[in-house]
Amino acid sequence: MAKGVIRYWAAARSAAGVDEEPYDAETLAQALETARAARDMEFSRVIARSSFLIEGDPVGTRPHDTVTLPEDATVEVLPPFAGG
Length: 84
What we know:
With about 80 residues, the chain is α+β, with helices and mostly antiparallel strands. It has helices at about 10-15, 30-35, 40-50; strands at about 1-10, 20-25, 50-55, 55-60, 75-80. It has a 5-stranded mixed beta sheet. The protein is globular. The termini are far apart. The model has no long low-confidence stretch (mean pLDDT about 95).
C-alpha cells in the first residue's frame, strides 16, 4: 500500500469538507472508495464528474482500478468548471 495525499479543488473541496486528506491505497479506485465511504451522495456525484491528476499527470479515461498510486504522491481532484 502506498501513502500520499488527496487534494480537492472547487466543488470537490466543498463536497469533501476538507482541502486534503491522506490516502493509504494501491490504486486510485481504492483511495476514492475510502474517501466516498466517509461522505454523502453529493461527494460521490462530484467525484464521478471529476478529473484526476497524479503528481501532475492526467489519469484521463484509464479505469481507476488500473491506476497504481506511487508512495508519497499527490492526487488532485478537479471537478468540472466553467470559464476556463
